[in-house]
Amino acid sequence: MTEIKLIIFDLDGTLVDSLDDLTDATNHMLALAGRPALTREGVRQLVGQGARRLVERALINGTEDEVEQGINAFLTYNGAHLADRSHPYPGVRETLDALQGRGLPLALISNKNVALCRGLLKVLGLDGYFAAVLGADSLPFRKPSPEPLFKLLRDFSTSPTTAIMVGDSVNDVAAGRGAGVVTVGCTYGYGDLAELRDADYRIDELPQLLKLPFFN
Ligand SMILES: O=C(O)COP(=O)(O)O
Ligand SMILES: [Mg+2]
């Protein structure tokens, strides 16, 4: 079994259950636009491709102006309420500690803006774990593009076969497969189970990562 040298995590739906705060930010934005609120489940289906895509999809048939104002409202609100109701999933800290204890570099690639990623990691006390953090606005490309992964593979001088991408959505699996890394799908996140069918492995809670063959 190959030795793993770099572990790349997604953020929302993988390390942090942020859906309640994303729902609040979405409904704040919708209220300002004079639109009806969405349920948590409704917002779940919009998460995964970054704030712009979420706002565009929430503002059905919205004009360009409405979408631009909506993105500002969403990002401002979310920035001020990053973790009012968000928390790491069970076993996240313990799993990150265990991986770090083995001397493995941990990195993060999210489709959330990088300032929001850093802010969320900091308020939850998870910022110390990651040697690199890439957000939606860090590069011209975002997941499902493999480019953010290629950048980290270059930065960490790691070959694809010795890296893993851990995420909850089809974008994570597609980006990971596109880069040729091992993919792990988190079934407890926001993606539908079918979205994770192409992942090499699926886990129902993060600590199961440590039980996968390449860590044993
Ligand atoms: O905020 C989003 O839409 C997605 O964020 P993620 O890539 O960390 O899951
Ligand atoms: Mg995610």
TrEMBL record:
InterPro entries from the UniProt entry: HAD-like_hydrolase_sf (IPR050155), HAD-like_sf (IPR036412), HAD-SF_hydro_IA (IPR006439), HAD_2 (IPR041492), HAD_sf (IPR023214), PGP-like_dom2 (IPR023198), PGPase_prok (IPR037512)
Job description of the protein: Specifically catalyzes the dephosphorylation of 2-phosphoglycolate.
Keywords attached to this entry: Carbohydrate metabolism, Hydrolase, Magnesium, Metal-binding
NCBIfam families: HAD-SF-IA-v1
Name of the protein: Phosphoglycolate phosphatase
Enzymatic reactions: 2-phosphoglycolate + H2O = glycolate + phosphate
Broad class of enzyme this protein falls into: hydrolase
PANTHER family: PHOSPHOGLYCOLATE PHOSPHATASE
Species of origin: Geomobilimonas luticola
Active site: D10
EC numbers, comma separated: 3.1.3.18
Keyword Ligase part of the UniProt annotation: no
Lineage: Bacteria, Pseudomonadati, Thermodesulfobacteriota, Desulfuromonadia, Geobacterales
Pathway(s) it belongs to: Organic acid metabolism; glycolate biosynthesis; glycolate from 2-phosphoglycolate: step 1/1
Domain of life of the source: Bacteria
Family according to the record: Belongs to the HAD-like hydrolase superfamily. CbbY/CbbZ/Gph/YieH family.
Annotated Mg(2+) binding sites: D10, D12, D168
Reported cofactor(s): Mg(2+)
